[in-house]
Amino acid sequence: MRIENRQLRAFVMVADKLHFGQAAAALSLTQPALSRTIQQLEDAVGVALLMRSNRNVALTEAGSVFLKRARRLLEDLDDAVDEARRAGSGEIGRLRLGYTDFAIMGPLPEIIERFRQGFPEINIELFYGPSHVQMQSLNDDKLDFAFLSETGDATDIQCLEVQQESFVVLLYEGHPLASKARLGVEDLQGERLVLGAEKNWGPFRRDLDAIFQECGMRPNIVQEGFNSESIFGLVASGTGVSIHLECAGNYMRKGVVIRPLANVDRRYLLKAVWRNRPLTPAQQRFYDHLRKWVSS
To answer: Are residues 128 and 53 in the same domain?
Structure first.
């Protein structure tokens, strides 16, 4: 049994008009051509769908049942064609974005929101992970874009620098250093430090190691945290002080004060990374948005 789209549309038109002449005119067909099309459909279905007379056309019982499904099929087909075309133009689709603490506390929420305003029907899925985990996810095709700081030895990728961040010091309220407007690395000599765990904060910790080495200091790390939230909590409790990025100002917790870390020229880079291959229409839309956001 083979039923064609044109046959279904012809049948629905006749059922709507209940008049072969009017239906033929609406379909830009001759009446004999329309009659042949309906006959071919009935032959394929195996039952009569219409009762015909010289003056009247009516649906049979089988025709009434078939009409409901035919309308639904045509509507689904039209929707499928429309969605396919919109997906092909990048109006709808899916994006899988990976992020680190610094990305979600920094520019990523604004990047996503502005993109969503232009393309509300592109579904965005977010996945948290340190840089090395995101790079593996990119390689395994589990992410479309990764927002991170270090790409390791990966080669088959493309990168776009999104933002540079300065370093800051996190202090608990009442700490003697909180009275200063700015702090130097030397001010942290002997201070109890709470830092992100090396496993998840590798690139950041390597930058901190370089900062301390340049000052001839050795950090006194008393506690490591899994993420920024845990670090803020530990600092607020008085466990110690921490070094973070200026994006920490976007996440204020009661009991924590932030001071710039002066005399440090080093900046922490946040990059958008994706695989070096043709982009889907939705990915291309996001890439174009990223470039525009960076240049604005």
So the answer is: no
